[in-house]
Amino acid sequence: MNSKKLKTTLLRAKDIFLDFASKTSIHGVKYFGCPDRNWCEKFFWMTVFGLSVCSGALLIRKVYDKWDQTPVIVSFDEKFTPVWQIPFPAVTICPEVKTPITVMNFTKEFHLFMEQSFKRNRHQTRDDTLLAMMQLCDRTNILNLISKTMTIPNKRTGESYASLIRLLNIPQTEMLDDCIFLSERFNCSELFSYTLTEEGVCLTFNILSAKDMLRTNVLQSSDPYITEQSEAPYWSLELGYSRQANITSYPRRTLGPGYSAGLSLFLRSDLTNHDYLCRGPIHGFKILLHSSSEFPQVTNKFIRIPMNHEVTVAVKPEKISTNDGLQGYSPERRQCFFNSERHLQFFRVYNQANCELECLTNFTLLRCGCVKFSMPRTSATPECEINQFWCMWNAEIELLEMGPIGHKFEELNFRAKCNCLPACTSVQYDTEITQANFDWMKWARTMNVSAMAVRGLEISRLGIYYKESQFMTSKRSELYGLTDFLANCGGLLGLCMGMSLLSLVELFYFCFIRPFALWGQQGDKKQIEHDRGSSVVDEKNIAVKGD
Q1: Closest among 403, 390, 213, 230 to 296, alpha carbons compared
Q2: C-alpha–C-alpha distance, residues 467 and 259, integer Å
Q3: What is the pLDDT of residue 243?
Q4: Which long-range contacts (CB under 8 A, 24 or more apart) does 67-70 make?
Q5: Is 90 helix (H, G, I), strand (E, B) or coil?
Q6: How far is the CA of 142 from the CAs of 145, 146, 152, 230, 278, in angstroms?
Q7: Alpha carbon distance 254, 82 (integer Å)
Q8: What's the CA gap between 534 and 511, in Å, rounded?
Q9: Pairwise CA distance, residues 422 & 350, whole Å
Q10: What string of DSSP letters covers 387-410?
Q11: φ and ψ of 362, to 5 deg
């Protein structure tokens, strides 16, 4: 009985297939069940059809991989962007001379410290100030001064290194003079604020306030990282300036290119403050141009401003924006984060630089149990001592080396876990630098400046301006959307097999709907035959009774 049912089912399936082959729009299938074709011809068409199916599947798989792995393309925007639509670059200026000679003679204090390091009658506060100064010394010099086997006592007072470094820094009035922005002369303290960096206390122009950039409720509050107080209620990195913003809104911006529309100032350095043991033979200033929402990290990338020179920096912005249509994609597919998607522990604004600084901070804390004085930290996180300099240095190198091996050992890779993708909207400032000798002594004489007022000084002049009034913006947009993917699949199916959407509907119909319809018709047929049989029996019984 079971074999009979199986045979009946197979016959019905054959009938359905022959019906499908004779009526489908898919090319080549009609030859499978054609009764006037021999098996050789049928085998040929089956082979051709199989190759077409395999070819179509292979090509569709390639299209899918491209859609899945590279759905985003970075291209130029359709129109230029005027420079007044973005903030003027933030400028961080760090002096090579870290403290006035009247506050600390590092060379003298260091040699005295090494001679009496094992005596107990040393002045604790003075020792801690020297240790704080050592945190600011050039890395190469520190490597020469401190060997891996040398043990230097830790800080013994309750003051943090950041607090001690703030007491060492050179006042702003002794570094900057004659600050001009948009052809208007300002008191330099109106334009610049203090920022705590790995280079010590630096001066920064046009940076966001701590309230707008940092999570001040998480960070330690005893030593401010940013002293800027100007808020930016009408600007954000992703949306730019709002309609409520005017030309004086913060962060500051310019209306056009040229030296007169930029920032210019004089940088001063006192020759008596130069110390060669701590910072080496090079003196002057380091400057960093960065986005207003980016916390400055001067050591890794900077422009050196030598003394007695005039340096002009022509800026060409580079902006990348992201189409709103990509918000539905995962960050890994579009290779960027919107600010609302990525939460940083210490920063309110997400960008790659802030994320990498936080990553280095967390990795240093993991390796050394402490962080550098300039790194963002909570009140419970200790600052690293000078004896832990090698640990901090090795942690930074180790984190950098994780980049090339991130794809092989991702489960062991701390850098991969940080996942510091670029921000979906970012602004970078490309620079062209020119410099020339600056005979400021002759200039001072022509300006009737007293020789006593400039004795022992070195002066440089710095100018920063936009090179052009407009710049080309790049944008991330969708390369292959779902519509493009379906269109490509339809084209490949039509090319290989002559299929369309209705062909798929036909296939679904003959696989699922048609068998149930035939099964229903078969049941109705049996019921009709059963009813007819019952009627015949009833008629015979009536005839018998009549006889």
Answers
A1: 213
A2: 9
A3: 92
A4: 67/480, 67/484, 67/485, 68/333, 69/333, 70/479, 70/480
A5: strand
A6: 5, 6, 12, 37, 8
A7: 10
A8: 35
A9: 9
A10: GGHHHHHHHHHHHHHTTTTTTTSG
A11: -65, -35
pLDDT the model gives residue 410: 45
**Which tens digit of pLDDT belongs to each residue from 88-120?**
999 999 999 999 988 998 888 888 877 766 454
Helices vs. strands in the chain: H and E counts, helices first: 17, 15
E strands, 227-386, are 235-236, 240-241, 263-270, 284-290, 303-306, 309-322
The neighbour count for residue 427, using CB atoms within 10 Å, is: 22
Q: Tokens for 298?
A: 């001067």
Residues of the chain with pLDDT under 50: 1, 118, 120-121, 406-411, 530, 535-537, 544
Token pair 């000798």 is found at 437
d(CA 302, CA 199): 11
Burial class of residue 218 in the structure, from the number of CB atoms within 10 Å of its CB (0-12 exposed, 13-18 middle, 19+ buried): middle
Residue 316, token pair as written in the block: 């060409």
Q: What percent of the chain has pLDDT over 90?
A: 45
Contact 235, 241 (CB under 8 A): yes
Q: What amino acid is encoded at 11 in this protein?
A: L
Which residue in 475, 476, 472 sits closest to 430, CA to CA? 472
Query: Measured between alpha carbons, how far is residue 184 from residues 104, 263, 265, 373, 541 in Å?
Result: 37, 9, 12, 37, 121
Q: In sequence order, what are the residues at sequence separation of 6 or more whose Cβ sits closer than 8 angstroms to the Cβ of residue 272? A: 101, 456
251 preceded by cis ω (within 30°)? yes
* Dihedral angle, C-alpha 425, 426, 427, 428, nearest 10 °: -150
> Phi/psi of residue 192, each to 5°?
-110, 145
Question: pLDDT tens digits, residue range 418-464?
Answer: 999 999 999 999 999 999 998 877 777 776 666 555 677 899 999 99
In 290-435, where does DSSP find H-type helix? 331-334, 352-368, 389-401, 414-418
Would you state the pLDDT for residue 447? 67
**DSSP 3-state percent helix, strand, coil across the chain (nearest 5):** 45, 20, 35
How many Å from the N-terminal Cα to the C-terminal Cα in the chain?
Answer: 41
Residue 389, number of CB atoms within 10 A of its CB: 22
In this prediction, residue 411 carries a pLDDT of: 46
β-sheet with 303-306: strand ranges across: 192-197, 200-205, 90-95, 284-290, 303-306
Q: Are 127 and 153 in contact, with CB atoms under 8 Å apart?
A: yes
Residue 42 CB neighbours (<10 A): 14
Task: Name the DSSP letter for residue 347.
Answer: B
Query: If DSSP codes are grouped into helix, strand and coil, which group holds residue 453?
Result: helix
Q: How many residues does the chain have?
A: 547
Asked if 87 and 253 count as a contact pair (C-beta separation under 8 A), the reply is yes
Of 479, 433, 478, 476, give the one whose Cα is nearest residue 319: 476
Looking at residue 358, its pLDDT comes to 96
What's the DSSP call for residue 32? Answer: T
Tell me, what's the pLDDT at 409? 47
